[in-house]
Write a structure and sequence with these properties.
Blueprint lengths: L10 H12 L18 H15 L9 H17 L22 H18 L9 H17 L11 H18 L1 H4 L1 H14 L15 H18 L2 H12 L25 E2 L5 E3 L3 E2 L1 H19 L13 H10 L3 E2 L2 E2 L17 H13 L6 H16 L11 H11 L11 E5 L4 E6 L2 E6 L25 E5 L10 H4 L9 E3 L18 E5 L5 E9 L6 E9 L2 E10 L4 E10 L7 E3 L2 E2 L7 E12 L3 E20 L14 E14 L4 E9 L3 H9 L3 E6 L3 E6 L5 E5 L3 E3 L2 E3 L3 E8 L2 E7 L7 E6 L4 E6 L3 E6 L2 E7 L8 E7 L3
Antiparallel strand pairs: 1-2, 2-3, 4-5, 6-7, 7-8, 8-9, 10-15, 11-12, 12-13, 13-14, 14-21, 15-20, 16-17, 16-18, 18-19, 19-20, 19-21, 22-23, 23-24, 24-27, 25-26, 26-29, 27-28, 28-33, 29-32, 30-33, 31-32
Helix pairs in contact: 1-5, 2-9, 2-11, 3-4, 4-5, 4-6, 6-8, 6-9, 8-9, 9-10, 9-11, 11-12, 11-13, 13-14
Amino acid sequence: MTPSPGTGATRRTVLAGAAALGAAVTLPLTLTPGIAHAAAGEAGALRVRWHTLLTGGPGLDLTDERIAAAVARTGRAATTAAQGLDPSRTDGLFADLTSTTLSNHVTTSFKRLATIATAWAVPGTPQHGDTAVRDVLLAGVDWMLTHRYGAGHTRFDNDWDWEIGSALALNDTCVLLYDVLGTERLERVTAAVRHYTPDPNLWRADRQIATGANRVWVSTVVAVNAVLRDDGAALARVRDALSDVGGSGANSVLAFNDRTDGTAGTGEGFYSDGSFLQHYKHPYNGGYGKELLNSLSRLLNLLAGTDWTVTDPDLDNVRGWVLDGFDPLLARGDVMASVCGREIARPSKQGHVSAQTVIEAVLRLIPSFPGGTGEGFTALVKQWMSEDTYRDFLAVTDPASLVAALRIIESPIPARGPLVAHRQHPRMDKAAHHRPSFALGISAYSSRIYNYESIQNENLHGWHLSDGMVLLYTDDLGHYSEDYWPTVDPMRLPGTTVVAGRPADAAGQRTTSTADWAGGTALPGTTLGAYGMELRAYGNTLRGLKSWFCLDDVIACVGSGIGADAGTVETVVENRKLRDPSAKLLVDGSAAPVGTDWSARLTEVRWLHLEGTGGYVFPEPADLRGLREARTATWREINLKYGTDTPVTRPYLTLWQDHGTAPDGAGYFWLQAPSASAARTRQLSTAPPVRLVSRSTAVHAVRRSADGLLAANFWTAGTAQELTCDGPASVLVRPEGRTLTVALSDPTQLRSSVVLDLDRPGLEVATADPGVRAARTGRGLRITADTAGLHGATLTLTLTLKRS
């Protein structure tokens, strides 16, 4: 019998249900919930489809140990979610979620109900089909509609919770409970959701148009609500909203923001170079970007093969999102923190959780992209799952994604193999360098990009996340997990140049630089790249020029023009959370003490080696500071919204160069050799593979000894040996036999052209990108590249030696 709407259950039944949840492992299976298999019309079929996305469907093979384990995880999650659940309370449905000023308490309450409902609907869980669990769920929905959510309640705090977060979770709960909801309760639920989110093209009380990830979230809310109401017209609006049909095209989710069709993008969403921006100018592939991909994959799955199938030709851009916007930013299961925004300050996003979301989304996309793209996604997902030995995807994902993953594993298509590439994202001032034994991410900002985000009392210590931060990913796959972000010294992030001193929490966030120069050049098909930024710090007078020349396994780090009117200025060589607290640090071959209270001034250092991390070579002997310490902090120090007050302690080794108080014209030069052995580092110090050509305020340049490759960042017009440039540019000149390849870009993204004079005789043009031309001048060539509208992208020219 269908329970009557409104009351849902008696107090006695509700409390019995809560108790059952707490002791769910001993409950018998008393009832199998239906999932509307025989429902009339397309709405019923779509409910089944969404139900399957949430549960894996009724045909789960519980004899498979991996599926059985996933089902057991679902049950345990429900047991945890039910703690403190009591619909007889008047202050809150859950004992720890009683606030009427913090909107995330509303969303979290709905999410917990959805978690419990999922276990009730998944065959094989202890909660599956239990009548007491059903009754407490229905009572919980009624409580939220009566006390918190719907037309009769005034929203507070964050709009996202009302229009997206709560609505998504409530929709899922109602799909899972559909057959037992009753007509009146279903109408109350769908009306409450429509009150906050009536249409995919309308968002917020001020009727602001949703963009980026928010637009897909809103569309998902409307779509599932429409399925619950059998509203085909609303589904059509959802389909059209993804493409902004009938609008200006500016709000299309599927089109790149730098589209060439004459329409202007909103600035939020994906760009053709793989960059993703949200909240106007924040790099966010690993935050809102992954959620957009995740939600879109669900929507495409829901609507496929129906009258509302998405047929927009821009759907093919999703391939570029995955290959350019996610693949280069994943490092063996970890999404590079430089593109995760304020999510790095959430304890729940540790441990490669963000990468799990990306993998699950791509698994759902594979059926929507048959042929070569689908096969490519299959190879990619296989690689991502296999290379993350820190967090086994198969042991953490939900039953539906696990079923899809097992199907992919059985496919004859082989894994792609490790990514070996140098990729740059000029639209968001980020670079990623991948070699077989390590990956490295560089984070900058400029007049175009914000430095960091701290809203909703999150990410309170993100001051220097874009001040040249360099994050090294090695075989220590848990390095940036296990409480790294609350315990690391936020004033000494690796790679950064800073003025010592602690700003106020969240000071200076959402700030652009007054400098335009940030970016570089990547030589296609290689792991060669030049990257740099003009640093103009927020809140003080610090200025400096910083370059990273990524030359396969060696990164040449160059700085010049570093100065400030006041304060002690430091450039951080490394700041490593130690997997092994006793990891050896060799200083010119001698072992430094391993205690956590060691600090020292290191003079005339030629090379360093940190066990488990790699080597650092100083061709110009440098004076450094070294510090070993155990750092204790709480997550609440960096996140008042989601952080806890439990202290955590982690060991760190920090190395930095002290430029002194109020320096003028300071600089640095060292070579980083990630994952190199101590013996290899010593060898590199004896015969450095890269030598410094120029470290002025006009140009940074280095030359590789093995092949003569010249890499240069021109801050202004200048000369670096045989190469002269007429203004700001980033250039690579690579000789290879009788061929010379020139790659260049305009990192300021302001110049209409870049002119290079290459003083090398006997060269002629073999191939050139459009807009690149060369003319003979004196002993060499004058190369002119049209850079207008390229937004920092690399152009290349191939030259050959004329045969005599």
